[in-house]
Amino acid sequence: MDCMELLAQIPDGYVSMILTDPPYGISYRNNFTKRKHRVLAGDEGIDYERFARESYRILKEDSHAYFFTRFDCYPYHYGCLRRAGFFIKNCMVVEKGTVGGIGDLEGSYAGNAEWVIFCQKGRRPFNHTTLLENRKKEGTVCCAGRKPGKKYKTRFNACWFGPEYPKATYNSVWQKQHGIYHPTIKNVEFLSWLIQISSQPGELIFDGFMGSGSTAAAAALTGRRYLGAEIDRGYFAIAEKRAGEAVSVYGG
Ligand SMILES: C[S@@+](CC[C@H](N)C(=O)[O-])C[C@H]1O[C@@H](n2cnc3c(N)ncnc32)[C@H](O)[C@@H]1O
């Protein structure tokens, strides 16, 4: 169904975390791959101002929201989210699993990162996870008078690059191997890290633009509940299947 129709039915403060990847109002058709993706529904854009207001309304007090964006949409998305009431804490920049092959190949830098606006409604500290070990050994005191270091990181960088972090997207080889095709598919492991940092098991995660169901799969994998919408029946079918199989496919 249409995300805006679903949003209108959701009571205030109903969801515990928003992790969503809305359409930006641009065409994603990539002419450089052998298998051409269909032009996405919503390519003409959504009413982002309204979407931001509704997202704020449905999110519980003291909770986190993540909105995928792009450098040229960022100022507009930032303004809408701020006007909706969100406290914008960071723009995360996360390395893609593959470098995009579209645009001016000879006169622009390759887009090798995803941008994600991280917002809070009220204030919620990050969970202490076991996702990433600190480089220094546990108990190391780096300066006199400071507390001994912990085994796992409790504060993450806003830029996720390099081998210690999961990539934001898959490459075309992964899509071919798994038979899952979507032009803007995101990496389930990456989403599952954000979910583990920002929510508790059993809590409800919202993504109004499911696509191939990466957020739904990440929620299932981490023992969270999920609520979402996808306007394209074909992608919705992929998403349903992927969420159902998440634990067996990604849980290993
Ligand atoms: C950027 S993609 C999301 C991709 C997803 N994160 C994934 O990993 O597959 C946005 C999705 O929103 C869908 N869409 C566009 N407009 C919509 C609307 N008004 N309501 C629900 N879904 C919509 C598109 O069909 C597309 O699959």
TrEMBL record:
EC number(s) from the headed UniProt entry: 2.1.1.-
Keyword field contains Thylakoid: no
GO MF entries: DNA binding; N-methyltransferase activity
DNA methylase N-4/N-6 domain boundaries: 15-241
Taxonomic source organism: Parablautia muri
InterPro entries: DNA_methylase_N4/N6, DNA_methylase_N6_adenine_CS, RM_Methyltransferase, SAM-dependent_MTases_sf
Keyword set, alphabetical order: Methyltransferase, Restriction system, Transferase
GO terms (BP aspect): DNA restriction-modification system; methylation
The protein, known as: Methyltransferase
Organismal lineage: Bacteria, Bacillati, Bacillota, Clostridia, Lachnospirales
Enzymatic class: transferase
One GO CC term on file: cytoplasm
Entry's family note: Belongs to the N(4)/N(6)-methyltransferase family.
The keyword Transferase is assigned to this record: yes
